[in-house]
Design brief:
CATH topology of the largest domain: Alpha-Beta Plaits
CATH superfamily of the largest domain: Transposase IS200-like
Largest sheet: 4 strands, antiparallel
Helix content: 40-55%
Number of helices: 10
Oligomer: single chain
Distance between the termini: 29 Å
Length: 269
């Protein structure tokens, strides 16, 4: 059940989308949205990426990023771990917040970039939340023309010099246009896939069953299964533990990421 390798952008520009697990909200209130943008600003500073556009909806997020020093996967891990840990603590929950791994699509064509920007900016218009994209508080289009440290507007204006960004923002994409995501993203593994994946892991450890592993190694296998996109229910059934135990293991991993971050940053991570 190997994951499809991500396409890398020659320009470094990526359209990234995060969605809440089971389509659940990523943001309960405005404080959550403000914290996500703060996490994005911290990620930008640590990773050296550029933020060209964003739009925060209730259960999903669109980002247009240009990566420089770090690959998009590492950039998104920085952002995801930081936000999820805070969100779970605030709302008294544990476990995964995002649906599987994030979606990403490289942007190497000027025409596609222009259409993509119109799509991202006009998401709340298409959803019927506002009539004008510039009225939406949680989209970057409202920041055009005003200094904001989060958006690299100078870079954006060099990428689309033929028209002003303000004109572009008023033009929604063609009706029915959607991003052409790479095939295979967000394809949930079946129970049979999950069982085969566990079998491969156990054979590597020379164990006939997960119950034969010591607790530390068992937790390692649980994390690995979650990383491969298995649901909490699937992992609990395979590991012969409660879903609460699986969520605890996932939560401990996020906490370890948080504690390790300052040391990793000092080492140039």
């Amino acid at each position: 059940m190997p994951r499809q390798a991500r396409q890398l952008s020659e320009s470094g520009i990526h359209h990234v989308m995060l969605r809440g697990i089971n389509r659940q909200p990523l943001f309960i209130d405005d404080e959550d949205r403000e914290w996500f943008l703060r996490c994005l600003a911290i990620t930008k500073r640590l990773s050296g990426c550029r933020v060209l556009a964003y739009c925060l909806m209730t259960n999903h997020v669109h980002l247009v990023l240009q990566t420089l020093d770090e690959p998009v996967g590492k950039v998104m891990k920085r952002l995801g771990v930081r936000y999820v840990l805070w969100h779970n603590r605030k709302h008294g929950r544990v476990g995964h917040l995002f649906q599987d791994r994030f979606r990403s699509r490289p942007v190497d064509d000027d025409t596609y970039l222009v259409t993509l920007l119109r799509y991202v900016w006009n998401n709340p218009v298409a959803a019927g939340i506002v009539q004008d994209a510039a009225e939406y508080q949680w989209g970057s289009v409202r920041l055009l023309g005003s200094p904001d440290p989060l958006i690299d507007e100078d870079v954006l204006r060099t990428l689309v010099p033929e028209v002003t960004l303000e004109q572009l923002a008023c033009q929604p994409p063609a009706e029915g246009w959607t991003p052409d995501w790479p095939a295979g993203d967000w394809a949930f593994p079946t129970d049979a896939d999950a069982s085969r994946e566990l079998g491969r892991m156990l054979s590597a450890f020379g164990a006939s069953g997960i119950d034969h592993l010591p607790p530390t190694l068992r937790d390692h296998v649980i994390r690995a299964l979650l990383d491969r996109g298995l649901s909490t229910r699937q992992v609990a059934a395979l590991a012969q533990v409660s879903q609460r135990t699986v969520r605890r293991v996932a939560s401990e991993e996020a906490e370890w990421e948080r504690l390790a971050a300052p040391w990793s940053n000092r080492a140039g991570a």
